[in-house]
Amino acid sequence: GNVGIGTTVPGAQLHMMGDGTGIGQIIRAARGDGGGTFLWGQVSRGTAAAPTASNDTDGAFSISGYLHNGTTFRPVSTLNLIGDGPQTTTSSPGAIILNTTSSGAVAVSEKMRITSAGNVGIGTTNPTQRLDVQGAVRSQMSVFDGATSSYRHQIFQTGGLYRWAAGISSLSDESGSNAGADYRITRYDDAGAYLG
Q: Residue 46: helix, strand or coil by DSSP?
């Protein structure tokens, strides 16, 4: 039941091949009502005729890019849309994973993830903060902005334990000549206990 366009040996339900020097346009969708166009991936357990609930981390849709190395095609990057927890009638959590193939490797590995909670992880598969980076970060500027009634801190940890922190440590409003007066650096012992 496979359909081939440009190939006499289709290896999938729809397999398209072609040569040329154009822009490489294979699939094109257009509409004139401003409603947008879609690629739709739909996955379940059970059967197509009698679907059952997907598993927590089932893949829903993937886009993969392959390049030829002179001998065969190898993946260079993929984008995976997956589940991120139990799928129920009232909750459908999902995550996005970006994979690339590192130099010297021949298989993709995860480089970035966006969880159902909205946390972004780079170098980690389990980000616990809005931005969770495992590795060095280079930045020209960092801005810590919040309401006068909110903490603004830089926190340094070892093994999940506080070592020291710097920032605004009071929730009282700052104004006039007092603005910034509650900025301080605090220390912690090896067990993460506050030292002052």
A: strand
